[in-house]
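G., the chain you wanted modeled:
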Amino acid sequence: IAPAIAQYRAALAINPEQASALYGLGNMMNIEGNYDEALRLYQQSLANRPDHVPTLVNHGSLLAFRGDFRAAEESFRKAAELEPTAFAPQRQLGELLLREERLDEAIERLSAALDIEPDHGPVHLKLSIAYAAAGRVEQALEHAQKAQALGETVPPDFLARLRQGAGQS
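Predicted structure as tokens:
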């Protein structure tokens, strides 16, 4: 990681506003656990290139990690608006909305993510959880089984409750 950091710093020494170098160095700082610096670099990158979807997604992810869910949602929404067919913004926004128990919106976004990547096991599992929380047991069971078929670990008690709720044994 040190050589990559050195290269990004060298690029920024030549052009301190280069959005791609700011984004790349932000990623390196994030990997190293230097979250304050990563956040600063993402924000600086976005000031120069506010339409860069990967920066918006990573910025939102870091904000969510730090507990700033409102700002994270803004980043994810902007990314999803800019690239509606990009998987990551839909997934991240859906998971954030699920965490916030905004179930209808979470289901909409997680479903949109699956429209883009239909065989993504973790999203099927999250969508199953959202459907279960919304009382839509049959749909929850369908996505839990799909997640399991795709190799995701689905808690047996969760699956059993869904089966029971759907009238299956």
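The longest helix spans residues 19-32.

Shout if anything looks off.
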